[in-house]
Fold this protein.
Amino acid sequence: EKTHKFWETQPVGQFKDIGDTSLPEGPIEAATPLSEVKQEPYNLPAAYEWTTCDMKSDYVCSEVYNLLKNNYVEDDENMFRFNYSKEFLSWALRPPGYYQSWHIGVRAKVSKKLVAFISGVPARIRVRDDVVKMAEINFLCVHKKLRSKRLAPVMIKEVTRRVHLENIWQAAYTAGVVLPTPVATCQYWHRTLNPKKLIDVGFSRLGARMTMSRTIKLYKLPDVPATPGFRKMEPCDVPAVTRLLRNYLSQFVVATDFDENDVEHWLLPREDVVDSYLVESPETHDVTDFCSFYTLPSTILGNPNYSTLKAAYSYYNVATKTTFLQLMSDALIVAKQKGFDVFNALDVMHNESFLKELKFGPGDGQLHYYLYNYRLRSALKPSELGLVLL
Ligand SMILES: COc1cc([C@H]2SCC(=O)N2c2cccnc2)c(CCCN2CCN(C)CC2)cc1O
């Protein structure tokens, strides 16, 4: 059966250990003294060299943007490819307390061309009652022409080494493929906002016995949100949103441990990057509900009429007075108003409660969540997960 040559050497839950309840939950390997961490970078193949990417530099940000635009994740039928924007990458990679040394590139020595990238950002993640300083690893990308040169394992070892140098010993990451060993396996769901375009580009298909006009009517949404007091989040809302979010996320087994500093960075609206709304009770002026989504367009590969699909991704949502159904319906309404073609969501947190009723359809892929050097006794249900990685 499938071997994972690299992952079988790493401190991650191994398939052979599944069901072995004698193994304790928590870190798999103890932290080592900094002096014992390898001080020099791992060796790359001779023609390549490490580079640290300064994401404050517009030029370097463009290099990372172009590498991902042409070589990052595609759907299983190679019809679409993620097209994270430069502004999004700068936001995603520079949260409070970030380390530039965790923004790692590989260049061809002669041409100096950026041919691969991997990144980490610091995050406090709570696992049951344990708040752990972790690295969130993301945007691992190797140029299409350098695939199966076994670059990914050495890039993963290098980012691990640099994370260890900052005295951090755990990490969180996701992948569309099964590796040893998922802590949760989630499903993508999509809500059509622009049915004609989604059908024209092959993202959706016209339902059986359905006409286009009937399909457009099926997905039609009101022009304005239904909830009184529904408005964009503003800087003065950071304390109230932090309270609301911390309280909501406390019920999940694994969740982000947001403080006000984190909320200010991750959840204040940024045009074409992240949108967030809240419900301020017209009577009491309390903030009772919150919803957010981030902007991740996709390049449409090989379509003569369209080049980009505008997708919104559900981020963090809390409903305490409004129903989840109505809150997320209002999120769909504002996303449609802003010109998004599709609204994506994973079945994490309480999302399952609204997906079918709001006419989301299941997607073509699963998203597996992983923890590095932290064992969980058993895999979680998606509804036990309060963590969304970008
Ligand atoms: C086409 O349907 C999906 C497309 C995608 C992604 S993949 C790149 C892309 O641009 N996507 C997209 C396009 C348009 C709108 N939202 C997303 C997803 C999410 C990732 C699915 N993983 C990709 C990698 N394998 C191994 C597993 C599945 C789900 C879809 O059901």
Summary: Residues 73-76, 80-82, 176-177, 188, 203, 298, 309, 311, 342, 344, 363-365 surround 096 (CB under 6 Å). The first helix runs from residue 58 to 71. DSSP finds nine helices and 18 strands in the chain.
